[in-house]
Amino acid sequence: MTVFLDVLLGGVFHAAILFLVAAGLQLVFGVQKVINLACGSFYALGAYFGITAVGLASAAGFPAWTVLPVLILAGLAIGLVGLPVERILRTVYRRDESYQLLLTFGLLLMFQDVFRFFWGATPRTLDNAYLAYGTAEFMGLRVPTYNLLVIAASIAIAVALGAFLQKTRTGRIIRATAENRDMSEGLGVNSSRVFAAVFTVGCMLGTVGGALVVPASASSLEMAVELVVEAFAVVVIGGLGSMRGALAGALIVGLIRAAAIMVLPEAEILSIYLVVIAVLILRPAGLFGKAMA
Amino acid sequence: MASRALLSAHQVSKSYGDFHALRNVSVHVDDGEFISIVGPNGAGKSTLVNVLTGLLKPTSGHVHFRGQDIAGIGPVELSRRGMARGFQLVNIFPELTVRETLGVAAASRLRRIGNPFRSLGGDREIRDAVEEVADIFNLRHRLDQQASALSQGEKKLLDVASAFALKPELILIDEPTSGVSTGDKHAIMELLVSASRKAGVRGIIQVEHDMDLVARYSDRIVALQAGTVLADEKPETFFKDPALIAAVVGTRPPKVPPREMAPKAAVQESRPC
Amino acid sequence: MSTPTSAPATVAPAVSPSLWRPSGLISFLVIIAAMAGLPLVASTYMLTLMVPFFGFAIALLGFNLLFGYTGLLSFGHAMFLGIGAYAAAVMTSKLGVQSLELILLVAVAAAVVIAVPVGFLCVRYTRIFFGMLTLAFGMLFHSILFKFYGLTGGDQGMRVMRPLLFGMAFEGGKTAFITGPFYYYALGLLTLLGCAMWRIVRSPFGLHLTAIRENAQKAAYLGVTVSRMRLAAYVISGVYGAIGGVILAVTIGLADPEIVYWTQSGNLVFMAVLGGSGAFAGPVVGGLAFVLLQDTVMSATQYWRFVMGAVLVLIVIFFPRGIAGLFGDAFARLKRGS
């Protein structure tokens, strides 16, 4: 029973982080129709910048319990890097998607060395900063409170994002642009501003995800390319462009990974791809996706 | 009569859930016939075309082409059995030349695909087949031009010509002249009819909104309404019934007299090159 | 929020290979001739760079049959490099088979055995979905190589012993072997496979592939068996990839999981676009440019990834038709000028 709970909590924590990155990927794909390989870089950027921000904050005398808000703010702030990146990406919106993939692949390579330049090649950690929040008893299991807070924060962001897209005027404009760019332009929507905003929000989801993960695990140069494939697995399982799909996919990937680490460590990544391929064979559009070519 | 039909649909119905797109439709095309399918939007023309070309399986009923059931056989098998299909919108390979476009069909028909190392340039039979079709459609001087560089009318011709390169027995065309200027419309239709004669095509089905063209070229007109056959008449009879015309297109009678009386204009030569 | 994603068109590069057909083989043979003469003038170091280029060039010829001609972008093509590399490793270190011809045959057979089922599943999709599915299969293969230590040596990889060429053993140091007999062996293989690919793209078979790229629906009505042809292109490109992988692994002397990581697949796409996927010889030119550029940048700065990434970004934005496109424009200008 405790093993099961352990897997469950570990999996859900990982899923919470994955969901944020995948939601950013889905948002950008939904509106711009661009698969952003650099989403992994945003995640890593958030992680590195989060470490720096927490370091600065503690040097400035912030109490230990401010780690979580500092990380979230740091993620949001560095997420603004999405604005200049979107300017670059904008040049290829009307082009074939192979070029879009390659452009974001180029950005991924560039970011890799940006991290190396600013933060060096050795992995960086926030030495157990999550302990500031202590541990909680959860059905007879001791878990770091921090993990529960991150899960809660991720759920809050998911709900807020859903409400924003469904309920607000801006959200409706974004969804209209996603459905038909030319038509919404005809109705007076400034689609280049919508694109810039959407990309930046997508970027922030990635950077916040990365910032939230660092108290629990190290940031390293490999985390960007490693995350890309996991985020891909999430969106393929859930269905491209679907937010509910991102949620379901993140939970599936997170739980499978946690279970595999516990039961059969060799099959950790393997099991994820087996699920991806099974989903593609049985339900090609993903669990929540619409028909695809 | 249906026994010697080239293509026949017998009591065909097609429904999607509660919606009945076609109800007990029977149509046939005899050897040497030019059939027009007409009807208002939503009458079931597209569904009928998709059933007749084996893309859709009817919910009930049979579709036979040259005596064989073709329900749901799909586009490739259709082309092998001898039926070609053209589309409403111009449907070409933008970056292939005219020669290559026609070559695609000729290579399928002549079964040249099994060996990936076989030479295309040195294949006399393919070249002859391509040039023969290009001649029929006045595209010879365009053979080595990219399809995207052709005029709108020529693109339409190329689309139809590529179907002819399959040497089909029956050809089914969805609005062959849509998006083409009125002058070019007749030129294309004349070319289509004369090309069919030259290429040995034994039957043509067209879906058409333009009643002038329908009146002038059809041997028989099948009118659909709400998924059923409203009329299946020769043009002389069809255009004598104002109620029928009104049901199909509104009230406008055809400006052009039926085919028998139409002047056989030599539009072919007057085409701009 | 969800969005319909059912656009029917396929991935098509900016320029049709057909535009280049007359000069494609000649450009390719010019490069081959230059490579054949290179040992007379170039340093040993330069020659050690060229042998991996031959491996990439073979893989890229296959990759571009799929990408440039058929319009399918594979983002997992490094899987086939890995199949070839591990075939060479297993044959030489575990089974004691040293004949390179035999190794190549086994690599080809392994590539076919894997490409047929994987391709069967992947070719049902086009565009981005094909890319993601091939990426998933590539990473599946990577995790198998990585995690099953006993079978594959895990992250350590497996050694690739020096093979026999046409049954002949060569003495001497590794560099002498790689830049001597093996250099010409690999170059010969590249020439042979390049000419074979030229025949393929100029055949009715190749014409049907380009028809699929241009308009799959129309192609089907003209009798093109779309899925079967896509599968055939995938298998052929996989075979080329595996042969390229054998050359790479023999050169390095090692097969390790890095060779199939998805970023390696990305590099293949990079090379193809750098040279110009619209031209027959474009990807080969791109492979050469990539190898030379990477070597230059790596010796100049430790931040070579940044420079390579920036080059890729600039190419995509400003020269989407790659080096071949630049040459094409220059020729066109010369013609107009005369």
UniProtKB/TrEMBL annotation, chain A:
<keyword id="KW-1133">Transmembrane helix</keyword>
<dbReference type="InterPro" id="IPR001851">
    <property type="entry name" value="ABC_transp_permease"/>
</dbReference>
<dbReference type="Pfam" id="PF02653">
    <property type="entry name" value="BPD_transp_2"/>
</dbReference>
<feature type="transmembrane region" description="Helical">
    <location>
        <begin position="12"/>
        <end position="30"/>
    </location>
</feature>
<comment type="similarity">
    <text>Belongs to the binding-protein-dependent transport system permease family. LivHM subfamily.</text>
</comment>
<keyword id="KW-0029">Amino-acid transport</keyword>
<feature type="transmembrane region" description="Helical">
    <location>
        <begin position="42"/>
        <end position="62"/>
    </location>
</feature>
<feature type="transmembrane region" description="Helical">
    <location>
        <begin position="68"/>
        <end position="89"/>
    </location>
</feature>
<feature type="transmembrane region" description="Helical">
    <location>
        <begin position="146"/>
        <end position="165"/>
    </location>
</feature>
<protein>
    <submittedName>
        <fullName>Branched-chain amino acid ABC transporter permease</fullName>
    </submittedName>
</protein>
<feature type="transmembrane region" description="Helical">
    <location>
        <begin position="270"/>
        <end position="289"/>
    </location>
</feature>
<feature type="transmembrane region" description="Helical">
    <location>
        <begin position="194"/>
        <end position="217"/>
    </location>
</feature>
<keyword id="KW-0812">Transmembrane</keyword>
<keyword id="KW-1003">Cell membrane</keyword>
<feature type="transmembrane region" description="Helical">
    <location>
        <begin position="101"/>
        <end position="119"/>
    </location>
</feature>
<keyword id="KW-0813">Transport</keyword>
<dbReference type="InterPro" id="IPR052157">
    <property type="entry name" value="BCAA_transport_permease"/>
</dbReference>
<keyword id="KW-0472">Membrane</keyword>
